[in-house]
Design a protein that fits this description.
two-stranded antiparallel ribbon, 1 helix
Length: 72
């Protein structure tokens, strides 16, 4: 999100962030190390969580058809 002119941003915890730049980019993805100011971190791939890494290491379940008991 781009804001024009000097801006003061008030965060939910009450802190104020001031920018004197003519155009200030605010972070909306929350990946910025300088949050709430955008540092273009959204351009880098997001880090995977441990559970996502573990899921990626597991073999995929190839069965797509539900199995039924032949005995009925």
């Amino acid at each position: 999100m781009l804001l024009y002119g000097p801006v003061d941003v008030v965060l939910p915890d009450g802190r104020r962030v001031h920018s004197d730049r003519p155009v200030t980019a605010l972070c909306t993805c929350r990946r910025s190390r300088r949050y709430p100011i955008c540092d273009t971190s959204h351009r880098r791939p997001a880090r995977r969580t441990r559970s996502e890494e573990q899921d990626a290491d597991r073999p995929a379940d190839r069965s797509t058809v539900p199995r039924t008991d032949p005995a009925g």
